[in-house]
From TrEMBL:
It is an enzyme of class 1 (oxidoreductase). Keywords: Oxidoreductase. Its EC number is 1.1.1.-. It comes from Halobium palmae. GO terms for molecular function: oxidoreductase activity. This is SDR family NAD(P)-dependent oxidoreductase. Pfam families: adh_short, adh_short_C2. SUPFAM superfamilies: NAD(P)-binding Rossmann-fold domains. InterPro entries: NAD(P)-bd_dom_sf (IPR036291), SDR_fam (IPR002347). Gene3D superfamilies: NAD(P)-binding Rossmann-like Domain. Belongs to the short-chain dehydrogenases/reductases (SDR) family.
Length: 248
């Protein structure tokens, strides 16, 4: 059983979806949980729900694109709990514009939120984690960072690819005192598991990467997509390999 008792986790974008379930799962494993989001009312509600199960929680209003706000979030966590062992960079989002449609402000917003945000928060927790030598950072990327988004805009795709690069570079530079890994949610009804990813699936992956079970896992990208990236098999594309062989 995974036991995070005595440790403190910050989860950004924790007011809903993946972030809310990640916060809940880490709390159930014994961690103190700092929930951060720009959605104050929803975020406080999630924090209260988790606290009702006996978890020590703190809600912090934080725009991760603002470096000062990220620093203040970490200071608040340290003031309340003493140290931060786990950071989950979950806050993110995207519009649905095509490359032809996207404007410069939407492009920049996606990069700021999905890439600079995790950078800001990671830099903010870095000094304390290097000092105590037991830091874990989990970045929530996307299978869009492995290929291309089918729902978001090009800024989302580019930033999620970038977040994978940031994960690997940070892991190289910060180890062994801080392990940095990423989770790529995805999924497809045409994939082997026959469904899209659920918050529980992502929370399970984060819990593994935040625990001692993954103590020798660093700079790794965990694809939590039910094998959805395999959905372009020849049978799905109606390719006939026998005809190809005859032509070769």
């Amino acid at each position: 059983m995974i036991d995070l008792t005595g440790e403190t986790a910050i989860v950004t974008g924790a007011a809903q979806g993946f972030g809310a379930e990640i916060a809940n799962r880490l709390g159930q494993a014994g961690a103190n949980v700092v929930l951060a989001d720009v959605q104050v009312e929803k975020g406080r509600g999630v924090a209260d729900e988790i606290a009702a199960d006996g978890v020590e929680t703190e809600f912090v209003e934080c725009d991760v694109t603002d470096r000062d706000a990220a620093e203040a979030m970490v200071e608040r966590a340290v003031d309340r709990f003493g140290s931060v062992e786990i950071l989950v960079n979950n806050a993110g989002g995207a519009g649905d514009e095509t490359f032809q449609e996207i404007e410069d402000d939407a492009w920049q917003f996606g990069l700021d939120l999905n890439l600079t945000g995790p950078y800001n928060c990671s830099k903010a927790v870095m000094p304390g984690m290097l000092e105590h030598g037991n830091g874990r950072i989990v970045n929530i990327s996307s299978m869009a960072g492995r290929n291309v988004t089918v729902n978001g805009n090009p800024s989302y795709t580019a930033s999620k690819w970038g977040l994978i690069g940031l994960t690997k570079h940070a892991a190289r530079d910060l180890g062994p005192d801080i392990r940095v890994n990423a989770v790529c949610p995805g999924g497809s009804p045409r994939g082997p598991m026959g469904r899209f990813v659920e918050p529980d699936d992502v929370a399970d992956g984060v819990l593994f990467l935040a625990s001692d079970l993954s103590e020798f896992v660093d700079g790794t990208i965990l694809e939590v997509d039910g094998g959805g990236h395999l959905n372009l098999a020849a049978k799905d594309l109606d390719l006939d390999y026998s005809e190809m062989a005859d032509d070769s």
